[in-house]
Amino acid sequence: MVGDKQKTFIQKHGYLVVPDLLSSQLVEECEMEIDRLHDLAVEFKSKNDPRAEKFQHEPFAEVERVNGRPVLRKIEPVEEFSQVFDDLAIHQPLVDLIRRLLGPDLLLFRSTLMLKPAFHGSIHTLHQDVSYWPVKSSELITVSIALTDSTPDNGCFKVIPGSHHWPSRKWGEIIRRQDEGLTDLDNIDTTAQIDVPLKAGSALLFDSALVHGSGPNCSPNPRHTALFAYFTPGGTYHPHKDATQYQTFRVICGLEGHPSVTLHAETPNH
Fold it and tell me: Which CATH number is 4-236 given?
């Protein structure tokens, strides 16, 4: 699935499209689970359960619910609420793919469902993940798996190839209203920006330093994405203000079978 040609491509351009990573059956199972998670969000809110905070609503949607279900933007960390997506993070074809790119020892940094809902999906402005995330690593790759067809109409990913070689910078707020632009920065060359449409079951892999974003979803079709970020144990932890001085990460494979690794502030793990 990933050979030397694909490795060279992602090293040069900062991203890689992998078609048909998931079977249609697994995609259908994930979509059924997303329905259940929307119902769970309603249950948590009705009971004033603090876990409801992990189910983020679209901030600019003019309605709170559609057909009785909440208009959700994302669920994070999704593995806390779903065995289906917990299992997907260690789906063998996915893990094998990342191992070919990063090596045998892998940690899970992030597990998220991005739910750009029909008609209400907000803009995700151009940014680099490395500018926001507390883990710094030259070997940190995000896998964005399309669970529905992802098109320019429903807000597919946009990337600037090669921009992972740019220095990290401040980008400002990421979430914007549908009628706003992808960036206010006037010193960013967006002429090379491209859309990355995906068929359901296919995936976009990208470097944590790649400049990317997504447009609004004004269409009648939701854009559902399972997003996992993996990194190697050489990463360092740089906590945000008032955060703990350490964080524990799940081991996906390797590391002599240890279940987790704890990184301390600005200290490489060896």
Answer: 2.60.120.620
Q: Which two tokens stand for residue 61?
A: 């949607």
Q: Where are the domains of the chain?
A: 4-236
Q: Which residue has the tokens 């008609």?
A: 119
Is the pLDDT confidence value at 24 over 50? yes
Q: What is the DSSP string of 144-213?
A: EEESS-B-TTTT-EEE-TTGGGSPP------EE-TTS-S---TT---TT-EEE-B-TT-EEEEETTS-EE
The DSSP bridge partners found for residue 226 are 113, 145
What angle (nearest 5°) sits at the alpha carbon of residue 222, between those of residues 113 and 42? 60
CA distance 256 to 247: 20
Q: Residue 10 pLDDT > 60, yes or no?
A: yes
One-letter amino acid at 177 equals R
Beta bridge partners of 186: none
Q: Return the exposure string of 170-191: e unless at least 16 CB atoms fall within 10 Å of the residue's CB, then b.
A: ebeeeebebeeebbeeeebeee
Q: What is the pLDDT of residues 185-201, one digit of tens each?
A: 988 999 999 999 999 99
Measured in whole angstroms, the distance separating CA 131 from the mean position of its chain's CA atoms is: 15
pTM of model > 0.85:
yes
